[in-house]
Hints:
It contains 14 helices and 17 strands. A hairpin with a 4-residue loop joins strand 2 and strand 3 (43-46). By secondary structure, it is α/β, with parallel strands linked by helices. 48% of the residues are buried. Residues 10-22 have low confidence and may be disordered. It has a 7-stranded mixed sheet, sandwiched between helices. The protein has a 4-stranded mixed sheet with strand order 1-2-3-15. Helix 4 (61-73) runs antiparallel to helix 11 (310-325), helix 8 packs parallel to helix 9 (227-240) and helix 12 (328-349) packs parallel to helix 14 (411-429). The radius of gyration is 22 Å and the shape is globular. Bound molecules: pyridoxal-5'-phosphate.
Amino acid sequence: MSENKKILDEEKINLADATRVKYFDIVIDHGQGAIITDADGTDYIDLLASASATNIGHSHPKVVAAISNQAKKLIQYTPAYFANPVTASLAKRLVDITPGNFKKQVVFGNSGSDANDAIIKFARGYTGRSYVVSFTGAYHGSTYGAISISGVSLNMTRKIGPLLPNTIKVPFPDQTQREAGESDDAFSERLFKQFKLPFETYLPADEVALVIIEPIQGDGGIIKAPQKYMSLIYEFTRKHGIVFAVDEVNQGLGRTGKLWSIDHFGIAPDMMSIGKSLASGLPLSAVVGRTEIMSSLSAPANVYTTAGNPVTAAAAMATLDVIAEENLVARSKKLGELARDFFEQAARSYWFIGDVRIYGLNGGIDIIDEHGKPDNQATTKLIYRIFELGAIMISLRGNTLRFQPPLVITEEQLTQSFKILTQAFTELAAGNL
Ligand code: PLP
């Protein structure tokens, strides 16, 4: 047993308790592209990309060089006090590559969670209203603001209340809940009625500061809102002077086959949070928003000493270069189509594969029992077997396989991962797991 593994065992770090799935007793030593290698030298195909935080692959040489060069010049000076060229260039670039032909500003943070907290603060500051509307199944992070507007699991808020006041959750338009024969538009109208219910009963719309949504929910199960629904809630926010924000922390930066998941809907949000893969997994997040909203608060309301730190900003500039130079958005779409073919075929071959949702190199694959109900146990068995066969995958909401490889995964690695998955599916079908 390696020294690192001993430490893990001695510390009794038990991820299973935290996650309800048996994760793998390995220590990751290094990674390159879509491959991670454990402390004992075993390689795994990474189908998780560190929870969508390494879209351009592990330790991309251009990012490593950018970090190293910037570290030699200046590691840290609080961007809130003094500008530095690389952080300023990044802010300008984010303004340019986010939707919306209006004046925008950027604030940086250290995590997706604090970016979403910033959105709440700015929306409240700008509107002078307090209520925030978010969605069931959403995951926006675990700072007090972000966790208060998340709705993915009961466990996350147990024992830590009281949460942020005046936060309301409405049902996410989860297409897997569509009634038989119900069209997209009819489903959108039905869910929009549910969205409006609080406003028609106890919550005056003119007291609402913010509606925040993941256009494609990540931790909620990789679920895309219907087009019409998104237009309806966007129009509602226009009518009532409510800030409309999207959380792109998980699904942004090429993950869904478009640069931003909101690009699937042709809507320019008032505010957007970005994180995870922005600096290839270094702690950096950003909020890009309309200037009039972003200028509603004065400095100490949302300042973190290291936010927008020059090394993380250099890593982000290099990451954005790689996304453009290696055509990773198009690659995500193209390889995502191979993944869709594979998983849809698997759903036809194996009765325990239920709904399959693939948007780019980004998928949620539901595992069900003979009654069509979520089967968490079978999902756990599958992901453990997939690990034994050499690929890393975890579950979402207990019974959904989470498929989010780095966008640089080669076709050969993708094919190899499909072989591994097929073997695991076949063994489960034969009752051998
Ligand atoms: N928003 C979304 C959609 C996420 O998936 C996550 C993390 O999983 C966050 C926000 C929180 O980001 P962080 O973990 O960097 O605070």
